[in-house]
Amino acid sequence: MSRFGESPRSIAFLASRAPQAQEALAALTARYGQCAPEAASVIVALGGDGFMLDTLHGTQKLGLPVYGMNCGTIGFLMNAYAEDDLIARLDAAEEELINPLRMKAFTLDGGEVEKLAINEVSLLRAGPQAAKLRIVVDGRERMAELVCDGAILCTPAGSTAYNYSAHGPILPIGSDVLALTAVAAFRPRRWRGALLPKTALVRFEVLEAEKRPVMADADGRSVRDVLAVEIRSEPGVQHRILFDPGHGLEERLISEQFT
Fold first, then answer.
1. I want to staple 149 with a disulfide (CB 3.0 to 4.6 A). Which of 16, 168, 183, 248 is the partner?
2. Catalytic site includes residue 49
3. Helix locations, the chain, DSSP H
């Protein structure tokens, strides 16, 4: 019997709008059936990393493991696509548990917005001038003024995404640290960022917010005109991601550093 139930029909297939993903959805549901996510034992996400993040966010309350198959252009969180032997692959899959970041953004109009981010929270300039940010960690000012295009706080799972493109460090899965990385830092010019404890509360305060507007982004979901942003790891939420044996996040993080 499968670890995900007696029938392959306990699988909920979800797909991005990309033609390749829609073709895969039709082929897989014809072969294995389809189940509503609320009644499923496992979710199979068809698309790229962006769709995988959307799926994890959208099905968070169900507490189900999610197995991604790459039908997009980027697939760090995904497994290779194959129509055959899906039940056996699901049974053999290894599970990774990931805590997201919780972002609370305070906006110029007095609003407060909370979002979760599996990969990273980024602050980015939203106008022609560089952003000016004050960085406070656990109530202590660590940098009075960072002039930059932006700053990123990422989880180990997100360290190979935008963070890595901004020359941030790759973090091993399971490490109790977060990476804070500057995007195109102008002053201090040589500052590349910091490693912080997973328990840290990080606060970015936007200086000259009206003259130098800044947006906050949590896994692609944006809040504009922010005055300040508070970020911390959320231990009360766990995402369950399934990987083929030998191809989990730990291996991918190591391999990425040798390419």
1. 183
2. yes
3. 19-32, 49-58, 86-92, 162-165, 249-256
